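Exercise: predict the fold of this chain.
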Amino acid sequence: MKKILALAMVMTSFVFASASAEVIGVVDFDKVVDNYSKVKTLSDEISDKYAEIQRYTLDKEREYKKLSTPLERKNFEESMARELSKRQDAYLKLKEKKEAEIDTAIKNAIKQVAISNKIDTVVEKSVIFFGGIDITDKVVKALNSPSGK
C-alpha cells in the first residue's frame, strides 16, 4: 500500500511539473530592428537633424572668416557656441525620443506576440544555446502591420 501511495505521489508531481512548465520564446532583436519599417523613417529624421547641425556649422565658419576684428570674432564665437549647444541638445533629445519610441514599440510587439502564442518568457535569441520558440518573424510582422506601432 505504501508503494502504491508513493508511486501515486511521484506521478502526481510529474503531472504538476509538466503542467507548470514555462514556455520560452526567443527574439533576434537585431533582426527585428533591421526589418522594422519605422526604424528607417526615424533614422532618417535623426540623420536630417544631424545634417542640419553640420550645415549650420559650415555656414557659421564662412561667416567667421569674413570678420575682421578680434572683438567681432570673440562675440561671434560666444554666440555661435551658445546656439550650437542648443542645436546639439535638441538633436540629442530627438535621438533619445525616437530610440525610445522604437524600443517601446518593439517591446509591446514582443509582449503582444508572446501573449497571443501563450509564451511565458521571452529572451534575446543570442543568450540561449538550444530550445525556445523563435517569434522573431511574428514580432516583425506585428510591427509592420497597419495596426502596428
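Check your answer against the key: Residues 5-18 have pLDDT under 50 and may be disordered.
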